[in-house]
Design brief:
- By secondary structure, the chain is an alpha/beta fold.
- The chain has two domains: 1-42, Monooxygenase (Up-down Bundle); 44-223, Leucine-rich repeat, LRR (right-handed beta-alpha superhelix), CATH 3.80.10.
- It contains ten helices and six strands.
- The protein has a six-stranded parallel β-sheet, covered by helices on one side.
- Helix 2 packs antiparallel against helix 3 and helix 7 (129-138) runs parallel beside helix 8.
């Protein structure tokens, strides 16, 4: 029996075992398999392992999407998560190329995926509070929000959770150094039903003003010289 002789349910089940690239390659072989690839039921779960993957035309965004994960683990994550004043010109250029990749993708999710239930972001150093605010407003059914090593996330995101996260049951803000203990306490007070985790966040050294950073850098150099 040829694969195209299988019914649609069997083909959808077969596609579900393949990664995004394999699905795309198989869809190129005939119109019937392309129709299966474009079936929204196939795309309820999406996992990405680098911002570059977000630019590939090998997946489908739509109302069927329930679970989304963008986890970027590499040395480059550390580069994008350190302050600009600590980066060399090559590192700054690299970060600039990816500056809006994740944020633009999440805005697309806001517009096209209103039924999202869970979102996990790890190492997404350019994602801002405004982006998370828009997502909370656009995805009212969101139950799980996990943010790890997202350095631009602050107490504004925590405030957005208290205002627009009515369905939220799980909130992680691990290694987000600009989240404060006061912000976490507000979430605990206003959203007692939310399972809150903030590993290392409020205990880490937060970002400070550029002028103060420069002073700290100079002071550190003097100590080294002494």
């Amino acid at each position: 029996m040829h694969i195209t002789q299988l019914n649609r349910e069997c083909l959808l089940h077969l596609f579900s075992f393949l990664d995004k690239n394999s699905r795309k390659n198989l869809a190129k072989t005939c119109h019937k398999l392309l129709e299966v690839f474009q079936d929204p039921l196939l795309w309820s779960l999406l996992n990405f392992h680098s911002p570059v993957e977000l630019k590939k035309d090998n997946f489908l965004l739509g109302p069927a999407l329930k679970h989304l994960s963008i986890c970027w683990y590499s040395e480059r994550v550390k580069v994008c998560n350190i302050e600009d004043w600590m980066k060399n010109s090559f590192q700054k250029e690299f970060c600039k190329r990816h500056e809006n990749t994740v944020s633009d993708f999440l805005l697309d999710v806001c517009n096209r995926c209103p039924n999202l239930l869970s979102l996990t972001l790890s190492g997404c150093g350019h994602v801002t509070d405004d982006c998370i605010l828009q997502l909370l407003k656009s995805c009212p059914n969101l139950k799980s929000l996990k943010l790890e090593n997202c350095v631009q996330i602050t107490d504004h995101t925590l405030e957005a959770v208290t205002l627009h996260g009515a369905s939220l049951r799980t909130l992680h803000v691990d290694f987000c150094r600009n989240v404060t203990q006061a912000g976490l306490e507000r979430v605990r007070e206003k959203c007692p039903s939310v399972m809150l985790r903030a590993e290392r966040s409020a205990n880490m050294i937060p970002d400070s003003k550029p002028g103060k950073k420069l002073m700290l850098e100079k002071a550190s150099r003097k100590l080294v010289e002494i």
